[in-house]
């Protein structure tokens, strides 16, 4: 076929006879057998000793093709070894000159499957493959596919669109993996989205593949960062910020100084990475991070855009918020005001920078967001007063009660708290983390007191996937409360169901929670929830699937018809039938 002809076309250029030549010889000759013998002699392996060995192989029925093939394979192995050796020996210019000559000679045979590996190997070892050859490779799908990543990098660095096509499915896969973890059916306060260490996360398939594609190529690294910035702007999806930090730290792990040394965020990210590993910002690292922020020079403010993206990574926000809650508790014990704690102010400064990432990159105005004084003078003291309320209540419970009877837990929320959660992004983030904190402490009173403030929050943060993922995990610690009507009404009717119809993700999280804890919920409440959570026409597959699973679980819990038969009028007591085990 035409494929064959094309495959061997390169041989003629090199003065090597091919099938076409043999055909021509045979068509124009008088003695075909003599002609074949002559062709074999002229084009066979030129070794005197073979003259006698070949007829011997013929006697044993070994086809000449098989013999030539094995000689060829042997030679090709030797040649591949030799090419790799040339790439390492002698003066740099000389060895590359040798490889370039070799490429010049062999490239015309690149279509021959038997020779292709050699050509590919030569290109792989050339730091600069001639432009013309790269263009030929690029124009041919199969050749491009067969190329080593070292050659592809040379193609990609001048073809952003082609590189984008390669990277794009990986980025999609990355976001999907993150969402799958957030919606995972395993709900636990021990294992959650933030459990894996940074080192473990960097071993993920996508990060490893991108690291491999980039190699030491700064241009490709910059392109990936540009893709991530663009996608973050387009979607506001914060997982792109995580990937930006993971990629840099993955190159750091491999000690690729060619890239780490030129990324102005490297040392900051490295230090923050250590804090994320510990899930806490200690004093020593706080000073270091502050040094980087204070060290941003006039004319280099653009680095703030990159730093803000690193700080917008949910793993960074999680670490900063957890550290903030810990600091506030310490301040209560020390009787210190928030504005008197430089460490706390630094955490807030980094939180604002992270939360302001999207606006900064969008507006291209690179300056740190202004911190609102009220956050420090009014909101944080409010949170501290909640901590004090808890202490007071706990102490009161332990005191021998006089006639006054038990002191009720405070059940109203200061209006200022609700307003802060609605209007101030940083206050909202810290407020939500405080609520996660009291839930983890199984503090039901404090949880029910503050829950109404979550119905309306800044940019609906209380209905974001990360918060709901963490909240559902922590609520498993209060699982026994789900038997109580009052608790369920506050949690479901008062909070979750207010958003289910307008937010598909909330619908999914409630169903996840119920699938996990349905056996704790009172049957009547469960039934009304099952109805309230019916999928609508607009609902996606995930919601329908979860609701089906829930319905199946509840079917199994219903008593079987035998147990509900009418008791005969004589009121004979029915033997008690054990109910099927829950879950």
UniProtKB/TrEMBL annotation:
The parts of the chain that form a coiled coil are none
Q: Which GO terms describe its biological process?
A: negative regulation of transcription elongation by RNA polymerase II
Quick one: where's region Disordered? 554-583
Gene Ontology annotations for the cellular component aspect, listed alphabetically: NELF complex
- InterPro entries associated with the record: COBRA1
- Tell me the Pfam families matching this sequence: COBRA1 (PF06209)
> What is the name of this protein?
NELFB factor
According to the record, the segments passing through the membrane are none
Give the gene name: Nelfb
């Amino acid at each position: 076929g035409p494929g064959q002809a094309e495959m061997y076309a390169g041989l003629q250029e090199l003065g090597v006879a091919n099938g076409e030549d043999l055909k021509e010889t045979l068509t124009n000759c008088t003695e075909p057998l003599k002609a074949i013998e002559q062709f074999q002699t002229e084009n066979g392996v030129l070794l005197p000793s073979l003259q006698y060995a070949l007829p011997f192989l013929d006697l044993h029925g070994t086809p000449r093709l098989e013999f030539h093939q094995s000689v060829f394979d042997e030679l090709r192995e030797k040649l591949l070894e030799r090419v790799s050796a040339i790439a390492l020996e002698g003066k740099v210019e000389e060895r590359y000159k040798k490889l370039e000559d070799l490429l010049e000679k062999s490239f015309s045979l690149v279509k021959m499957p038997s020779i292709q590996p050699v050509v590919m190997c030569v290109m792989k070892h050339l730091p600069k493959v001639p432009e013309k050859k790269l263009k030929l490779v690029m124009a041919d799908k199969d050749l491009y596919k067969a190329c080593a990543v070292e050659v592809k990098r040379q193609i990609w660095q001048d073809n952003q669109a082609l590189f984008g096509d390669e990277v794009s499915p990986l980025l999609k896969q990355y976001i999907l993996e993150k969402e799958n973890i957030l919606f995972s059916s395993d709900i636990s306060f021990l294992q959650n989205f933030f459990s894996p260490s940074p080192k473990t996360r960097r071993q993920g398939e996508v990060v490893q593949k991108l690291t491999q594609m980039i190699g030491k190529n700064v241009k490709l690294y910059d392109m990936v960062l540009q893709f991530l910035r663009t996608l973050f702007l387009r979607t506001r999806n914060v997982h792109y910020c995580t990937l930006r930090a993971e990629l840099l730290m993955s190159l750091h792990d491999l000690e690729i100084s060619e890239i780490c040394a030129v990324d102005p965020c490297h040392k900051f990210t490295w230090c923050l990475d250590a804090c994320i590993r510990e899930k806490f910002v200690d004093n020593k690292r706080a000073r270091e991070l502050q040094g980087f922020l204070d060290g941003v020079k006039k004319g280099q403010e653009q680095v703030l855009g990159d730093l803000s993206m690193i700080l917008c990574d949910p793993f960074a926000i999680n670490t900063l918020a957890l550290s903030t809650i810990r600091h506030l508790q310490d301040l209560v014990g020390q009787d210190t005001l928030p504005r008197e704690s430089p460490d706390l102010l630094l955490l807030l400064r980094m939180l604002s920078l992270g939360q302001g990432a999207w606006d900064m990159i969008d507006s291209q105005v690179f300056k740190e967001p202004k911190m609102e004084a009220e956050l420090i003078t009014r909101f944080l003291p409010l949170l501290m007063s909640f901590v004090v309320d808890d202490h007071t209540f706990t102490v009161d419970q332990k005191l021998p009660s006089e006639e006054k009877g038990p002191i009720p837990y405070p059940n109203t929320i200061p209006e200022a708290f609700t307003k802060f959660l609605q209007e101030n992004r940083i206050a909202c983030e810290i407020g939500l983390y405080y609520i996660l904190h009291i839930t983890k402490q199984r503090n039901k009173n404090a949880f029910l007191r503050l829950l109404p403030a979550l119905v309306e929050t800044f940019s609906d943060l209380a209905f974001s996937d990360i918060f709901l993922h963490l909240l559902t995990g922590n609520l498993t610690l209060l699982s026994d409360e789900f038997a109580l009507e009052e608790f369920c009404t506050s949690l479901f009717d008062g909070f979750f169901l207010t958003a289910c119809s307008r937010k598909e993700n909330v619908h999914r999280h409630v169903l996840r929670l119920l699938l996990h804890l349905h056996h704790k919920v009172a049957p009547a409440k469960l039934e009304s929830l099952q109805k309230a959570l019916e999928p609508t026409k607009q609902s996606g597959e995930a919601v329908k699937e979860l609701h089906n699973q829930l319905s199946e679980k509840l079917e199994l819990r219903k008593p079987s018809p035998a147990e509900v038969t009418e008791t005969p009028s004589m009121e004979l007591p029915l033997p008690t039938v054990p109910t099927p085990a829950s879950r």
